[in-house]
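Researcher: Let's do a round of design. I'm pasting the structure tokens now; please hold your answer until I've finished.
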């Protein structure tokens, strides 16, 4: 149960982050041009309208057209052609979403996965794409490692510790309060909060976009990268601490 709640929480976080990636350029451009607040509202409205049209097209047309196309490709019996077809479909939807609807590549890629999942060949598609998934994950973390500046730990140690504290303690404490508010046991709340005591890859993407839009300074990216890497490294320790707390809670709950 704890794992399901944490997984659901992370999915919601990713969805909200995708929405933030979509709306951030619309918010940043008017502020950067010093326009009135009505300009911000107009830009947000247009962005949301484009996203709505894109989502409608994907849910109405995409869920019918793409599974049919994958079915035609699968009938050829070629494993290589099927793999190429899935990759082309995913990249095509992501690219088309950016060019035709003005939404982010991230949102397009997300809906490409949703549409492909509606196909009868979704399990085969996931299996065929596993090698590519591993390769892209490796490339992603290699690129993150190339962006990380270890000297930030020496130059700005207090700022790094502040970011790390917000990630590990601030985020986890908020999660703890929310889970307890839904009347889950304290042990479950502690485990879920430990599961969320880190930040993932979307934080790097959001930070990069914010820097490109002149919302954040370049130093913020280094601090976020340092906080993310340190929080991921310390996350197993958080689980050990929570496990010890759960054992103590369980021992106190047992009748003497």
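Researcher: That's everything. Go ahead.
Model: Designed sequence:
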């Amino acid at each position: 149960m704890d794992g399901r709640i944490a997984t659901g929480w992370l999915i919601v976080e990713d969805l909200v982050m995708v929405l933030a990636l979509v709306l951030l350029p619309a918010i940043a451009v008017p502020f950067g041009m010093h326009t009135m607040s009505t300009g911000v509202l107009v830009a947000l409205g247009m962005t949301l309208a484009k996203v709505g049209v894109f989502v409608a097209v994907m849910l109405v047309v995409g869920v019918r057209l793409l599974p049919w196309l994958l079915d035609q490709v699968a009938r050829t019996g070629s494993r290589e052609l099927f793999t190429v077809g899935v990759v082309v479909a995913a990249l095509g939807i992501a690219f088309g979403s950016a060019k035709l609807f003005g939404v982010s590549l991230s949102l397009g890629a997300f809906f490409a996965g949703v549409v492909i999942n509606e196909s009868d060949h979704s399990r085969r598609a996931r299996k065929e794409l596993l090698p590519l998934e591993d390769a892209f994950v490796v490339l992603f973390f290699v690129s993150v490692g190339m962006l990380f500046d270890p000297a930030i730990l020496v130059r700005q140690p207090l700022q790094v510790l502040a970011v790390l504290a917000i990630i590990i303690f601030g985020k986890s404490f908020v999660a703890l309060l929310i889970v307890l508010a839904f009347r889950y046991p304290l042990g479950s709340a502690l485990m879920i909060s430990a599961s969320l005591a880190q930040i993932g890859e979307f934080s790097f993407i959001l930070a990069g976009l914010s820097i490109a839009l002149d919302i954040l300074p370049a130093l913020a990216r280094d601090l976020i990268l340092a906080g993310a890497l340190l929080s991921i490294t310390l996350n197993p320790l958080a689980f050990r601490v929570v496990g010890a707390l759960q054992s103590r809670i369980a021992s106190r709950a047992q009748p003497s």
